[in-house]
Design a protein that fits this description.
Layout: E1 8-11, E2 16-19, E3 28-32, H1 35-39, H2 41-60
Antiparallel strand pairs: 1-2, 1-3
Length: 62
């Protein structure tokens, strides 16, 4: 999948935000709608993981 030249990404290798084409897709998170959101990529992923973990725990109680 080609990078969206208008989107923002977070590079896991360099720990930087990239706009458009940059490092390999497997080394990046995104796309994100803006630079500020891309900068928060790791926090967003952590929050989503915690939310899914809680959902799994709740499901396991059924």
């Amino acid at each position: 999948m080609a990078a969206d030249p208008n989107a923002w990404y977070y590079c896991l290798t360099h720990r930087t935000v990239e706009h458009g084409v940059g490092c390999r897709g497997s080394d990046r998170m995104g796309p994100y709608p803006d630079e500020a959101t891309a900068q928060r990529a790791l926090d967003l992923a952590r929050q989503r993981t915690e939310s899914e973990d809680e959902s799994d725990r709740e499901w396991g109680k059924r």
